[in-house]
Design brief:
Elements (H helix, E strand, L loop, with lengths): L2 E3 L11 H6 L11 E3 L7 H17 L6 E3 L16 H12 L3 E3 L3
Parallel strand pairs: 1-2, 2-3, 3-4
Helix pairs in contact: 2-3
């Protein structure tokens, strides 16, 4: 399966060893067709790292038809859902303009 569904298995927590192994490795995966990382408690830094890794992946192996869902990410103890800072939102916008479908607005 080329898709990434961390939250489905309750693994989308910053302290989870598997997630720490996945973050940073996304940039090296050239078979990825989608990912679902919504409804999690990632930190802003971890969220931005995921965006950086996927953007690097696209720069390395440019392709479209990739779907990513990062809606409803809320750090523990926070009342608000995360939105990417401007620098990272620009990366998402560029990916979407190149055939990706990155859903990130809550």
């Amino acid at each position: 399966m080329a898709d990434l569904y961390l939250c489905q298995f309750g693994l989308a927590k910053e302290s989870t060893t598997l997630l720490n192994m996945v973050i940073g490795q996304m940039a090296k995966n050239n078979t990825k067709s989608g990912g679902h990382i919504s409804t999690t408690n990632l930190s802003q830094a971890a969220y931005h790292q995921i965006i950086d890794d996927l953007y690097e992946n696209w720069e390395t192996v440019p392709r479209g038809s990739v779907t990513i869902n990062t809606k409803r990410i809320k750090p523990e103890g926070s009342g608000d859902y995360l939105i990417p800072a401007e620098e990272w939102e620009e990366k998402i916008i560029e990916l979407n303009s190149n055939g990706w479908n990155w859903v990130y607005k809550n």
